[in-house]
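Open question from group meeting: does this chain pack into something compact, or does most of it stay loose? Before anyone orders reagents, we agreed to write out a predicted structure and look at it together. Recording both the input and the output here so the notebook holds the full record.
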Amino acid sequence: MLPHTFNCCVMKKNILLVYLLFNILSIHHAQNWPKVIDEYQNNSFEFGRKITESYDKGYLILADIYNPYPFLEYMWIIKTDINGNLLWNKKYGNGEDEFAMSEFEKCPDGGLIGIGQTSKYDSQSDPIVIKLNACMQIEWCKVFHSTGYNSGSSIELTNNGYLALIRYHGGQYDNKRIFLFKLDMDGEIIWQNVYAQDDPLIWNEEGRSLYITSDNHYVITGDCDYPLISGGDTSLQEYTRPLVIYVDSMGNQLWDMKWGYYEISHGVFVKIKEKEPGWFYTVDSYMQAYQVEKPSLHKFDNKGQEQYLNFMFEDPDMVRGGSRQLEFLNDSTMVVDLCWTYTYHPLDEGYSEIMTNDTLGNLLNRRLMMEEYNSFRDFTLTYDNKILAVGNFNGSDKNNDIYLWKLNHDLEDDSLYNQPLIYDSLCPHPIVSDTIDCNCTVVNMDEYIIFDEPPFDLLKIYPNPAKNKIIIGNWYMAEHAGCNIQIHNLTGKLVLQQQMINKSRQTEIDIS
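Structure tokens returned:
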């Protein structure tokens, strides 16, 4: 069912006067929101990634500038006042090499810590971590170089430094992809660790977001390719499944969870929230049993146990839909985004909404934001619990621009604030808009991020014990068709030999 905001588009002529009056009032009401940020007018694409409230009640927006698309020209930080009016903007890069910032976090000194990627020191790109002071000047910048196309995904503050989620995509075997780096306050590496190495059935894993729990554990969310497993059998067909990795404060993996490995499914986890200690919620674009992708709400616990999956929105004519952002307004209400469409072509045709749900995913309220199939990129709550939402939409010029809304709990545009505020008080001088090149310290990570042939102690055999059959998995098998598997008894006698004909990370052996 279409939201009520569509009704104004089909009103009959005999109530045209009411329709016109309604639109005049709506235009007056919406003069302040949304704010549209378009840097180069019709010549570039601007993508907002994150929004946060600054210490002075202004708003900081993290964005990328593509000029031309898909060249990532600059990392971009935009500052607005409490009503969304532009105060200044800073670009980081040189216009010749690619620079992109995936995420930033506020620091206690009024500055920011950011993570992303750059091609300045490697044409295939490297992860970059950059610390800015309260004046948005660069305090330090570190690039963690290694072979291949690599990037930084997410960063969090700890009590004595920073935690950086790094994605490595290079090398011959490509089996080490998700890393955490623990950095001190100056960006020096305290420790680093790699994840998703214990399960040989995990493939093509991606770490997309990082979250610190109430008991100081770390949660990595993302996705991986994983086969259908049912009753101990493993099919050869793999599906992209939501992935959660749970890590202790020293960087040790405690468990991982592949959501829905027992069914035909598809999904990716990005943003999670801990509602009460040990209970986590996330939203997704989730598909079951070859049905359409639907906006879904997932709940799991700190033991890696799935609690429930609820589809938040279903329509018989919908061909795809999804959600990626959520925030809790209070103990029983969350705000989430919703995008959905009736058609596959054109790709952007559809609807983008914001809705409020209860903790089971039941709809409380909806508002249509844009008639485009685009999900919002970030939500946050202000000091007075208003909703800030940033999204990327084509708008009138058909080049992607940044849209900023501020809403109350009824999902109406927030009113203007008239009280005078002082901005950027932690900087001793006014902050001006300009462009700053990043001259970074390059740290060679090849000795840590090495893609050699994996050791055979990564061999996994299950179930154990077994009666009729076993499944053997190993990274080496994925790269070498025709390798032999030999089984010996306790005296060393060869009792079974089997050759793998096709490349696979697993094979089934009859031991009956």
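Observations to bring back to the group:
DSSP finds one helix and 37 strands in the chain.
The first strand starts at residue 35 and ends at 37.
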